Amino acid sequence: MGLPAKYPLAIYRGDTFRIAFRLWKDRDKTEPVDLTDIDVKAEVRDKPSGLNITLMSTTVELPNLIEMEMSAVTTGTLPAVGAWDLQLTYASGDVTTILAGSVTVTPDVTDSTRSIAAVSYAARSSA
Q1: Domain extents in the chain
Q2: Cβ neighbours of 33 (radius 10 Å)
Q3: Per residue in 7-16, pLDDT tens?
Q4: CATH value of 5-125 in 3.40.50.1970, 2.60.40.420, 2.60.40.10, 3.20.20.380
Q5: What distances in angstroms separate CA 40 from CA 21, 87, 89, 122, one per listed residue?
Q6: Following DSSP, what letter does each residue of 88-117 receive, concatenated?
């Protein structure tokens, strides 16, 4: 297999992130890829080979659906930009990366300074 297909992710910091991919063997989407006994793994990093690693929760719904998720807490820890990919590991041990791309995280507004606001309010209350 060649290079993975490019698929950029746009994530809003502090929100739950969910995305799903249905895999097909053909362009007409009539023959599903059978994901039986295939291990699916997805990661976000600050850069390719970067040390800041965030795993995405992955679930397979047979025959060909991959669902990925990150909690609101997890997206709150992501770097502003990064990279991600989705790998399939077959029972034979072969590994294929089918999707990859950039990650852009938009800063949130609500709850983005919760700890600062609590400190400011506490300081005013005790004065």
Answers
A1: 5-125
A2: 17
A3: 999 999 999 9
A4: 2.60.40.10
A5: 12, 6, 6, 46
A6: EE-TTS-EEEEEEEEEEEEPPSTTTTHHHH
Name the DSSP letter for residue 32. Answer: B
What's the CA gap between 7 and 23, in Å, rounded? 14
Q: What is the CA 12 to chain-centroid distance, rounded?
A: 12
Give the Cα separation of 6 and 2 in Å (integer): 12
Whether the CB-CB separation of 95 and 40 falls below 8 Å is answered with no
- The answer to whether residues 31 and 37 touch, using CB atoms and an 8 Å cutoff, is no
Indicate yes or no: pTM above 0.90.
no
Name the H helices within the chain.
Answer: 72-75, 114-125
pLDDT tens for 43-86 read 999 999 999 999 999 999 999 999 999 999 999 999 999 999 99
Core vs surface per residue 53-62: b (16+ CB within 10 A) or e: ebebeeebee
Instruction: For residue 10, give the nearest of 89, 105, 108 by alpha carbon.
Output: 105
